[in-house]
Write a structure and sequence with these properties.
Blueprint (H helix, E strand, L loop, with lengths): L8 H59 L3 H50 L2 H9 L2 H16 L5 H17 L1 H9 L7 H40 L4 H11 L5 H15 L3 H29 L5 H21 L1 H25 L1
Length: about 350
């Protein structure tokens, strides 16, 4: 009679070790996902602070080339002149912009009702009203706007954090870079340093292109709205310029306030404003942006849209805003850590 021998203690112990190892790895993975989700908004604020520092350093290099001054003096001029220009703009135009934005906020409910009234006068407008609810759209826009401005610590605290992070990163970037590199194994430090330099160079070029496009779009839309006789043209153009920082979705979002204001005048005026905004978006997407990207940076449009959708779900408004620089960082990291190594292995 054959009897089965009992399992060897070593084999049982090995199985138990494997179970505990799998459970530990799973727990660690879950903990990392939870930590990433909780701290992701903070990481986005740090990225925004880094972009501010890159702006100051890029502006300082321009000052250094033109005035032939030292790096420290150029950085000082960069920071002071930036705040001075913003202060002067707010001083000369702030009152008018604030008045128009306040008026826009106060008249928005009345504007929605007026838009409904104007649309109901035409057969096309009645069909539109049957398909969509303007109140629902405005309520959702208000909800998403509230979530955006109340995210993390609140909008004013976020701005405060970003500005001071940007200044600290500007003053002594090498301290933070050296601290990060000290966490990297010695053999990989030179490659990591090169990758960080490439990320900084890429983000600086992207930032130049975005700021240039924002100014052009704001000016063009201000001229167009003024010619069309749309009220609050400065505020609407400012909103359009700022939201143009968000590729693909920003220009579409900025179109709705202008259409609502135009609907208070007439449906025809709203149609003209819609056509003008779409034409400017086509010009920006096919003429301005490609010309800037060819000289500065080129990123796949589809990849940016996918990243925006994913980041919008994960982190709301801030994720949508910062999806593009994150894509730029990811592209550089993949090129340096994976693609170039594959090419080297193929050559071998």
């Amino acid at each position: 009679m054959n009897e089965r021998l009992p399992n060897h203690p070593d084999s049982t112990l090995g199985f138990q070790q494997k179970v505990w190892m799998v459970c530990s790895i799973t727990a660690l993975f879950v903990a990392l996902i939870w930590f990433f989700k909780v701290t992701f908004s903070v990481l986005l604020l740090i990225l925004t602070g880094a972009l501010v520092a890159l702006f100051f350093h890029g502006y300082a290099r321009l000052i250094q080339r033109k005035l032939r001054v030292s790096e420290k003096i150029a950085l000082l001029i960069s920071v002071i002149s930036t705040f001075l220009i913003i202060s002067l703009l707010l001083w000369f135009m702030g009152a008018k912009i604030q008045q128009q934005i306040t008026e826009l906020a106060k008249t928005l409910p009345l504007t929605v009702n007026s838009a409904k009234l104007q649309l109901s006068k035409t057969s096309l407008g009645q069909k539109i009203l049957e398909k969509i609810s303007i109140e629902e759209i405005s309520d959702k826009a208000y909800l998403y706007g509230s979530l955006f401005f109340n995210s993390t610590f609140g909008v004013f605290t976020n701005i405060y954090i970003v500005v001071f992070l940007g200044i600290f990163f500007t003053i002594s970037p090498r301290v933070y870079i050296s601290g990060f590199l000290s966490l990297i194994p010695p053999k990989a430090r030179s490659q990591t340093k090169y990758t960080l330099d490439r990320i900084g160079f890429t983000l600086t070029k992207w930032l130049k292109g975005q700021l240039f496009a924002m100014v052009i779009i704001a000016v063009l839309k201000w001229i167009a709205l003024t010619v069309l006789g749309i009220p609050m043209a400065i505020a609407l153009a400012l909103i359009a310029g700022i939201l143009n920082f968000i590729p693909n979705f920003g220009p579409l979002i900025s179109m709705f306030p202008a259409i609502l204001i135009a609907l208070t005048i007439s449906v025809d005026k709203a149609i003209v404003v819609t056509i003008v905004y779409l034409l400017l978006q086509i010009v920006e997407g096919n003429v301005i942006a490609p010309s800037i990207q060819q000289r500065l940076i080129n990123m796949p449009a589809a990849l940016i849209i996918i990243a925006q959708l994913f980041m919008g779900i994960v982190s709301g408004g801030w994720g949508l805003v910062l999806a593009t620089p994150l894509v730029a960082i990811l592209i550089v990291v993949i090129q340096e850590t994976y693609i170039k190594k594959m090419d080297i292995d193929k050559k071998k």
